[in-house]
Each structure stands twice: as structure tokens, then as C-alpha cells.
Amino acid sequence: MRLRKMQFSLALKKQRAAAFTLVEMMVAIGVFTLAGGLIFSFLNTGMVLYAKNTAMNSAHQQARTGVDQMLANIHASVSIPQLVDTNLAPIAAPGTGPAAGVDFQQFDGGPYLLYTGANVAATQNYIAILAPDLDANQSVAGLRFNIPSHKVEQDVASIVAYGSYRIIFFSNPVGVDIITKADGSGNGDGNKDGTSNIIGFTTHRVSYAVIAKELRYFPTNDPLTYRVIARNLIATTPFQILFNQNGGTDLRSVGAVNLTTSDSQYSNRGFAAVNMFINSYIPFRSRLTVFQ
Amino acid sequence: MRRHSEERSGNALIVTLVTIAVVSGFVALSIDLTRSVSRNVQRSLLLRQAINIGDAATEMAFADWRATCIKNYANPAPKGSTFNAASVVPSPSPGNFPGVSKYTLTNFAVVGVDSSWEPIADDLIPPKTMGPNPQNYSYYYMATADVIVPTLTSKIVGSATDSGNVVAKVRRILEKYRHNKTDKAIDYRDDLEIHPGPTFVVNGDVHTNGDLYTAHSSLTLNGSTSFSGKWSVGFMAGDGQHSESPTMPSWGTGEPPAWEQASVPFGIDVNDYHGLIENPTTLPNGTLATSDPLYKSSYSYKDNYTFMVTIDASNNIEVRNSAGKIVTNKSKNPKDLQTYNLFQDAITTNENITDNREGATTGTSSIRVVTLDVSALTAQAADSGNKIDFSAPIIYITDTSADPTGMTNKRAVRLKNGGSLPPNGLTIASSNPVYIQGDYNTGTTASVKPESDTSPDATNAPSSNPASPTVSGYDRKPAAVIADAVTILSNSWLDTNTPNSTASNTTVNTAIVAGIVPTGDGYYSGGAENFPRFLENWAGKTLTYYGSMIELFNSKQAIGHWGAGNVYAAPNRAWYFDKNFLSHPPPGVPYDVDYRRGRWFMQ
């Protein structure tokens, strides 16, 4: 009898469990839908904010990294920066821009002492230097050799090792006679009394340019060899040389304007680091070469 | 059934926990990324701050090094120990960097370096590195500054080895460069204006310690152009003689005008370099103090000459040899006697010419000139019996009766028959204005003239093949004329000439070191295109010039403003920088010491 009562009771419970009304179900579903919608909306908003924040941070970071590197390089430039187009060709005079890119020379190696065993004739297209550490097998793309005291600045065509010396070949003649050979006079005139102490150094030309919305770094000034520094740039010609109020330029700086990035990698929303580097005034620190 | 119910409850908890974990993960990632970015940004900003502090510190070191070198101008190459004392190169204080709360500056110093720019011991003189001639050379130094800035992750503040700190080891090479002033086409100590009408090409380097004014597209700067002030595409304030709209000049590929550190003539800092040519013994008291560096014999031409010739108010001639001894017809030393006879024959006194430019300003156009026949010097140098030293001749010649204000008693020196110069060149220095009459340093004789006279170029446009400025077989000698002002008289000049007299093609090959009458009060200085002055009607005639034009001071005796009417008509200017000066400068030519910022880098 007790067993029967228990079986009946269980059966009654099952009937009750299965007896939610349609109204009850709809209310329940409505409540869950509302709650789920609220949660989804909350999460979606959070994700959007996260994506926006991430995108902006990323955009800022990319631009900052790019500008930091560019800033350091331009600081260390040894030539007057010149503006270039997307083919890295100097823009036409007066060359103040705005332009897609900028190029300049960086110090590469030296100073090296010129070989004192023979004078350099203006017509010869090579020069010998004491440079045991100078890699003769390196790429000479963008490489230049400079003798500031004699205003010699030439693109390097090749380097040949000869013991501790390196023979630097140029595409063109040196252009000036250089007296390096001692005459033994001992009169204290440097190159006349046993040691020439005429020095030269190497530089290499590098470029930065905005091409296809990318800020690209060209370590050898070769348009085909580059590294992407920042992506999704908005301005296509962010570089210019600033004029002074008198109409001239002081050519001590490069104004990088509107180096603005957006980042679509995370959000597809194109959030931009708007005008974060407008009118950056980037002075170069020293000028060791005559030519740009 | 009970177990079944517990499973459903457990799933809900797990789902909740997973959801929370995922959301928390995203939040954590976001926070981590944000923190990472924040730290990078902070380190980036602090590094930039450290670099800026290092930059500023080395700039201060540069300024102190430069000032110390100028103060010790007699020492061409101070040792590194010269700059050790804190009083010489004082370390920057935090007050120099307002707004920067925490930084540590160490290794702040100026040291000597060798030719490879490697530091040398403090008690060693930096080695000399050579230029294109024995008078051009450099000494190198290095300014160092290590700046340490702490970050949030720093463990030891001020430690360069703590990776938590940001460290910037800033290095700057400093160069003390001594070079002759004749290594440029145009070199101005004061503001430089170049406002040519017709096409004018400057074939050589240009520098001004002041402001550069260019305003014409007819100007081409075909060399390295630099200025230490500012560059204006326009006209100087006070120039009332130009009203046209300024246009941009042209320049050589890759050589735009650019700022450059000011050069220091002789490496000494004085207000008025006219003292170089003044004769202090004849000046009013106080005009040139004996304490003035220019008074010292190593700089002033009144003490630094091969021959010194003075003419007094009565036209008496006094000649001194290089030792400062007066030579006479009674001198027993054969060399002195030759010197006396040479100048007695070569000099003519008490001649007068008319200079309407001076007349327009001072009311006195008649100039008493002493004429030096340069051919007499050249003949003496070539004479087999010559005993006079012509190895590097410098003649200081001055009429001491000139009014130092230029208003009255107008005196001048005229160089005549200067077609050929002594074999090692010639430098003429005078406190008076100098007139160069006719071809100079061209090899011209009575029967032979250079191509530049017979078939001159109308301009010095770079595409032209320049006419030779010397006759065949004559090599230009290193020459300089250093004077209060320099006026060029053509081959056709006669003392009876009027301003309307027609000039003829003339060629002058010499460096010119002279003064200007600066722009102001409505007057234009005349610019570099009128640095050598003119008096005749040169219209259609060509002045061919190979040399170097150096402005060091304002004129004191030839003070006539440019631009007065009835003075001259401009020549065609076929002017070129004489590249021979790079390897063979004129005797005793002034030099500059440039204190340059060299290579900048971080170790």
C-alpha cells in the first residue's frame, strides 16, 4: 500500500514537471532572451571597446615605433635630408614638399686613414684606405665614401681587400688631387712630414617613404628592398621641409606631418590615431657631407 | 532522478565559469596589452627624454669647448685636460632641464680623440688631420654624456647596468677646423645679399656668418651655400632700392642653402676685423686697443709683412723690411738697399683720380692715390741679381694721412701693370681703399691679352666653356688684395675719365678681402655682385674674375653708398671661384677656425 502511494506520488510529480503551460514557457523564454540579449549586448559592447582600444593602441604603437625609428635615424643623419617621391627619386627643386618620402645619409664606418704610399690623382677612380675591419664583401648599394677635407663624395662601386687596406672603387673619377705621400720635409705640416692623416668615412643612403599606405624603410635606398615600419597610414605625402617666416628654409629639420595610422587588423573599423604626429619637427644633428 | 538534476545544475555552473574565464581572459589580455603598450610608450618617452638631456648636455659641452678654444686661441690644439675642470666645462644642473624630475648624468666630459675618433689620454695633443693644403687641418674632440632615467621597473636608480633603467649614452664629435678663407667663392662675416639683375651663377661655395638674402631666380648658387643666421627669400630691412617681388634662386643638385655653424676668423672673437689692416700707430687713441687680439703680430698685416710701405701727408715714402727696419739709400745690407730702390722705382705718389661713388656720399670725389707698379716687383723677382725674398711676398702699403672716417683727406692705393706677378704670388694689404687698374695676374703684356679680354663670356653660366683668363704660358699666381675696399678699373681707364667713359673687357685674377657699406637707411649695400666696386660705363663689356671674395668688415675710408647716379654701368660678370686656391692659397691670406658639431651617435 505504501509502495503504491509512493509510485502514485512519483507519477504525480512527473505529471507536474511536464505540465508547464505555454504561458510559463513563453515567459521563461522571454526572460532568458531578455537576459541573454542584455548579456550579449554588454559583451558585444565590451568587445567593440576592446577592439577599438586594441586597434588604437596598435595604431599608436605602430606609428610611434615607426616615428621613433625614423626620428633616431634622422637625428643621426650626416647629410641634409632630401624629399623623395614614391620611386625614391628626389623631388624637383626647391624640393620642400610635401612628399611621400625622405632620404638621407647615415654614418656607416670610419674614419679611415688614406693610404700614404701614393698620392691620389684627380683622374683615378679609386682610393686606398687603411681599414682592416671594413668588409670588402658587403653590398655597396647606397654606400658612399667621403673625404670631407677635400670635398670628395662618391658612390662606391666596389671594394677590394688588400691586406689591411681596402681599395674603394668609384663610378667616377675622384675629381681632385689628394697629396697623401710624405715628402720627408719634417716641417710639421702633417701630410708633408711623414703621416698624411687624411681621413675619409663611409655613409649609406637610407629612405623612408609612404607607399600603398605603408611607411617603408629602405635601408639601401633600393625601392625593391624595404621593411614595413607602420601600416594603414592615411596621409600619402607626410614629409615636407619647413619654410621660415622669411620665405627661406633653414634645412635643419624635416617636418613630418599627418603621419596618421588606422588599424584594421583587429576590428575592421579603421580606428585611426588621428593626427598624432602633426607637425613633428625632426632636426638632424650634424652635417658631415656637402651633398644631400 | 536526483543525480540527473545535479548534472543540469553543474553544467550551468561550468558554462558560467567558462564564460567568466573567457571574458576574464580577454580582459586580462587587454589589460596586459595595454600595460605592455603603456610600458613601451613610457620607456620610449623616457628614452627620448634621456636622449634630449644627453643632447642638451653635449650642446652645452660644445659651447663651453668652443668658448675655451677661442679664449685660448694661441693654442691650436688644446689637450683634453684643458677641458677637465668643472669651471671650464661645467656639468649641467637639474635646473637646466626644468620639468625633468629624475635623471642621472655621468661621464660628462670633453676629451681629445685621434684620427679614428677614438679617445686619447688627457695629456696628449690630438693629432692633426690634414686638408688639401698644409694650412688646412683639423683637430677632433668628443663630448660624452651618459644619461640614466629610472622607470617603474627600475631596481637601482642611477645604475647603467640595471635593465629597468633607460640609458642614453650620447656622443658628439667636435671638430676644430682651420682653413684658409680663400676656399670659397664668397665668404661674408656680415649679412650677405646677392641680388643680381641678369643671370648670375656663383661657381663655388658661399658662406655668411650672418643672414643670407636672395630674391632673384636669375641667381644660381652652384656650390655649397651656408648661412649662420637665417635665409630670406627677400630683401634686407632698410634696403629701399629694391621693390620687385622676390623669387627663389636655383642651386646645384643636392646642394640647397643650409644652416652652418658660424666660422671664426683667425679663431679669435673680435668685434671689428678692420684692425687687420689698420696701422695702430697712426690711429686715433682707442681705435685699436693693444689688448685687442688683432694687435698681435701673428694676425695684423701691419706687423705681418714682407715689405711695409707708408706714405705720409707730404708724400714721403718710408720702406721697412720684414724685420721692421727702415731701409734707405744708405742701407748697407744689399738686400735692404735693393728693397729701398725697388719701391722708390715702383711707387708714384700724389696722383688723383675721380671716384663719384665717394663723392656722392662724402662730397669729396677726388682721391689722392699712391700707385704701385706691380711689374717692377715682378721684374725684380725675376732678376738674376735679386737678393730680396719673394718666397711669399706680402706688401703692406698705406697712406697714413687718410682720414680714418673717410670724410676728408681721401687716400687710396692703386695697383698698376699687374699683368704678371712674382712666381710665388703676391698679397697686397692696405688700410686704404685699393684700385686695381687693368688686367691683373693674367700674363697680359703690351702685345698679348687673355682670351677673356679678346673673346669674353657674356655670363658665367655653367653650360658655357669659359674663356681662358690667362695668356698662353702664364699660370695664375696665388694673389690677394686686402683693403678697406677694392675698386676695379678697366684696361681703358684714364685718370681723366668721367663716369661715362667706356670701359673695356678686363680680367682680374686675385682674391679680394675687403669691406662693404652695409644696407640701411634706404641704401642697398650693392650685394656680392658689387663687392668689387666699379666706376666706368661697363655696359656690354665683361669683367672676367677668378678669385675669392671675402668680406670681413665695414669699410671705414671708402664709405660711399652704392646706388648713387652717375657712377657706373654694370659689366657682364664672368666670375669664377679660383679652385687653385684650394691647394695654393695666397701668401698670408686670412684664415677661419670653424668649431663644428661633428658626428652624433649613441654608444
What does this 3D model show about the protein?
The complex is a heterodimer of chains A (292) and B (603). Helices cover 24% and strands 28% of the residues of chain A. Chain A is of the alpha+beta class and 292 residues long. Chain A has a six-stranded antiparallel barrel with strand order 2-3-6-5-4-7. In chain A, strands 10-11-14 form a three-stranded antiparallel β-sheet, covered by helices on one side. Chain A is elongated and about 125 Å long. Chain A starts with a helix and ends in a 9-residue tail after the last strand. Chain B has 603 residues and is α/β, with parallel strands linked by helices. A twelve-stranded mixed β-sheet of chain B has the order 14-11-8-5-30-28-25-23-21-16-17-18. Chain B is elongated and about 120 Å long. Chain B starts with a helix and ends with a strand. Chain B is 18% helix and 27% strand. In chain B, helix 2 (334-346) runs antiparallel to helix 4. Chain B has six helices and 32 strands. Classes of the chains: A alpha+beta (292), B alpha/beta (603). The interface between A and B is large, with 57 and 55 residues.
